[in-house]
Specification:
The chain is 83% helix and 0% strand. It is mainly alpha-helical and 255 residues long.
Length: 255
């Protein structure tokens, strides 16, 4: 019932968006050459699916994203849990993180291309940079929020450090970690597409640039829709992961 309600809400939201889109075209009197109608874009989406264009570029983009995201998430969580337990060490690293974090990953692209060459690696590295800092910061914040009295009790019970991290600190900091994972999904996906629009020869970002160069704006909007829907589904997958971990650890997942 809950899934069905969410699906209905999603369809209602998308319907409202399409209506607003069509109203903008009517009110602004935009021709198809400037702003394709929902019907034209719908036909383009069907054509891209039937021709296999969507599958080809989506597969490449998702592969790059998954690689960069997991390469960032695992060390960021582990490092965040360690630094959260070492406040004096974190005070040294925090200024470094705060200086590097605001720099757009795309700004590093000239060096990334020089260091890693052309291909999938530049996009993967860009995703890594975009996803690493949000996860690291939220993990450290989550660890810092843990009641010190609980940690003292665990230490008095002589619980080993590895067990303490695995059985207590990670579950206690998990809500903050999930917030970082969700934030990293958004930033990583955005910068993946941005990276593909700069120099890649495949992926959803390249698909949009290629369609723009050939003035197929219906394909451009179709690509934008695919990007948005893919980002939405990736965020939902993080929610599923949150629920699974919540059940495993006896935590109550957020609604």
């Amino acid at each position: 019932m809950k899934i069905g309600k969410k699906l209905v809400n999603f369809l209602i939201g998308m319907t409202i968006l399409v209506i607003i889109w069509q109203l903008v075209i009517w009110v602004g009197s935009y021709p198809e050459a400037l702003l394709p109608s929902p019907l034209s874009v719908g036909k383009a989406i069907i054509a891209m699916i039937l021709e296999g264009i969507l599958y080809e570029h989506m597969q490449v983009s998702l592969g790059r994203f998954i690689a960069g995201y997991f390469l960032a998430a695992v060390p960021a969580i582990l490092l965040g849990m360690i630094l959260g337990r070492l406040p004096q060490v974190w005070q040294v690293f925090d200024p470094i993180v705060q200086v590097l974090r605001p720099v757009s990953p795309v700004a590093w692209s000239p060096f990334i291309v020089l260091w890693f060459g052309i291909g999938n690696m530049p996009a993967i590295v860009i995703i890594f940079i975009a996803a690493f800092f949000p996860i690291l910061l939220t993990t450290v914040a989550g660890v810092n929020k843990i009641e010190r009295s609980y940690l003292k009790i665990a230490e008095n019970l002589e619980i080993k450090r590895l067990q303490l991290m695995y059985k207590f600190i990670f579950p206690a900091a998990f809500p903050s970690i999930v917030s970082g994972l969700r934030l990293a999904v958004g930033t990583g996906w955005i910068f993946l597409v941005a990276g593909e629009m700069v120099g890649a020869q495949s992926g959803l970002g390249f698909l949009i640039v290629d369609a723009r160069n050939t003035l197929n704006l219906d394909y451009v909007l179709a690509g934008i829709i695919f990007i948005g829907v893919s980002g939405f589904l990736l965020d939902r997958l993080i929610g599923v992961f949150e629920g699974w971990v919540g059940k495993h650890w006896g935590l109550v997942p957020r609604s």
